[in-house]
Amino acid sequence: MSHYSDCTNRALWLNFKNPADDFSFYVGSGIPVQERFAGLRVDAVVIGPGLPALTAEQLALLPAEVQADAIWQVDGIGAKLYQSPADQSNCDHLGATMTAASTVVNGRCDFYETFGRTNSWRVLDADGIKIPTKGEEYHVAVWLQDNTSGKFGVAVGTWKEDFRSAFDLATPGCERDMKHFAEQKAEVNPDCFPVVSCPGAPAISKTMCEARDDACGGAAVDTAGAAAAEAMMGGCGGEQCPAALSLWAAVNMKMHTGMALDFTGDSEVDFVRGMLPHHAGALDMCAVLLELECVTMEDVAALEGMVHFCNHVEREQVRESDGMKSWLTENNHAVEAKCAAKEEKKTDTTDHSGMDHGSMNHGGGGRHSRMADEMDHGSMGGMSMGCGNLAAAKPYVDANMLMHTSMAVSLTCTHTVDFVRAMIPHHKGAIAMCEVLVSEDAYLVELCVNITRVQRAEVAWMSQWLDARDHAVDAPCGLDANGNCPSDKDKTVLPFGGETPALPCENTLPTSSFCHTLDGGVNEAYCTCERAAADHACGSTAMVDGLAILDMDAECARFCGLCPSGARPDLFPQACPHYEPPKVDEKDGGCAGFGADNGCDGEEVCCSGTCRAAQCAAWETLGADSDGAAGVSPASAVHTSSLAASIVAVVAVAMW
Asked: Which of 570, 554, 320 lies closest to 450, judged by CA?
């Protein structure tokens, strides 16, 4: 956590419930690499039952407000004091984990945080503190050694990062803009964070530096054509956050356009060329999230772990993208293969009535016609699916379309939730692409093994993240006002047959801190469950030196046989069965289209052939009229194609 001590209170307090007897606990602190902070040192005390009593000399080193706290009146309370050494010219005061990730730079012990890409001077590093009694509450106080103002960061707990669980954390009411805490990525007014003796004279102003502005700057992606993207790819909902809707839609459309290749018919080349814009799409999604939430990659702990997740995504995607570009170059292939405009296969978006599709078995039922035919010919709903050898590329095209239609989620305008819900099918798309790849190339086989292992782990992690915060994992578009599937008026059809799809059960060890080391590397012994099992049996829990307690069953559920037997569920489950809205006999007084000539009076709208005073229900937009308007008002017409696509375009890949 990032903290600025402004002379209001001397100490920063934290408390925790001890999870195990003799639990290994960590307290550390760093300060920004800025000359005005160079003299700062940080001390800490851990207080609780079963700890030894402090000596009189140690007690005298505690700030008066810490000494006066009521915690000392509790029977059996002891404490351990940890101090920053005055000499910070080397890293001798660091424990093993931080020593491996730090170096001496310009006469100071410097730690480079690889995710936020920031440096800090590590002034306190108390590792391996033994907390004796399970279930008891312990307290930590941290303060600047000298009674001054100043910035310092605090890390407590274990080396295992847990952003998956939901924690009830108090949100400080900071009035200063703490966004660029490290003062390395942007200019920060030093007058906002002075180092002065306390109490300050005059007192340090809490209002001289404005708080972060939620109305952030320009868009993170090119939003040209965002209205068209909304209609095709943008999902539904989002009435309260139209800017977010446009940004998500534009990202999805940009990725889709990049993946609509001039197909060669060479499975390997087409796979690599398509995976590159797929990977770039993940980075664009992260950029949109950070733009909407007014944070940067430097704010590693922000957004309940999503900034940290995006840092992981960036590292993996950039590394794999560089490898794929090298593979193309080494095999004498151009990196890109775009279609010329005249070659792109497109159809209009009108008259989806009469479609009977879903003969393939990825969550649908029945037989296919118009939608599958469009897929066969390289287009769907007016969107180009590519050009060239589309017959050979059909498995790839099908997987691509399944991913994009599944990413059209019902937006809540809680940006982290919307991001995760769209990123899950994005990750599934990479898995699907690997499943249809036919290759014996050693590099591509290894690439897909890693993609499949890591993406399945991250899909499970993200699903658990949503579930821990009481959010449904699936939020499909196209449901009616009661949250049911479109159907005849006398029927109630529940999404997913009335049963909430089970959370994915996978090995999450590849996404954990056991695998990803603090210095940005990997610990191969803990990146696969097969390797971890050499030292840790299923059903066991053990302390991994320098990290945390490894629970093999929790991190390796599939490896340990704890997942349901049989094949995994469909990657892209279909929420609703295909439904044909009843056709309207216009000769008997039905209406059609929207606008002044829709056959209705005044400002009424046409909903499935019936004039209404209110906007149509989502399912009624599927009753397309001859002019392609689908019987909705202009205000909702922009979402027609995405609603239709999300319900009727979830076709399947035959080999799955």
From this structure: 320
Copy the structure tokens of residue 578.
Answer: 């295909």
CB 487, CB 647: distance < 8 Å? no
Could you tell me if 270 and 263 are in contact, meaning their C-beta atoms sit under 8 angstroms apart? yes
The CA-CA-CA angle for residues 421, 425, 430, to 5°, reads: 145
Position 50 scores a pLDDT of 96
Determine, yes or no, domain membership for 368: no
Q: What is the count of structural domains for the chain?
A: 4
Residue 405's domain comprises 226-340+393-502
Q: Are 33 and 93 in the same domain?
A: yes
Exposure string over 101-124, b if 16+ CB within 10 A, otherwise e = bbeeeeebbbbbbbbbbbbbbbbb
pLDDT tens for residues 473-520?
999 888 887 888 888 767 888 999 888 899 999 999 998 888 877 666
List, in order, residues 6 or more apart from 266 with CB less than 8 Å away: none
Q: How far apart are CA 52 and CA 34, in angstroms?
A: 37
Q: What is the CATH number of the domain that holds 334?
A: 1.20.1260.10
- Residue 298 and residue 267 share a domain: yes
In this model, does residue 635 exceed pLDDT 50? no
Residue 294: name the closest of 216, 194, 352, 409 by CA.
Answer: 216
Stated pTM of the model: 0.68
| Distance from chain centroid for Cα 117 | 19
Contact residues for 544 (Cβ-Cβ < 8 A; gap 6+): 514, 526, 550
Instruction: Show Cβ contacts of residue 655 under 8 Å, excluding neighbours closer than 6 positions.
Output: 395, 435, 436
How far apart are alpha carbons 553 and 538 in whole angstroms? Answer: 6
Structure tokens at 328: 């193309």
Fill in the amino acid letter for 556. C
In terms of domains, do 436 and 516 share one? Answer: no
Distance separating alpha carbons of residues 498 and 523, to the nearest angstrom = 43
Same domain, 431 and 541: no
Residue 612 included in any domain: yes
Tell whether omega for the bond before 49 is within 30 degrees of 0, i.e. cis.
no
Please state, as a whole number, how many other Cβ atoms lie within 10 Å of the Cβ of residue 136.
15
CA gap 473, 452 in Å, rounded = 20
Bridge partners (DSSP) of residue 45 are 81, 141
Amino acid at 616: C
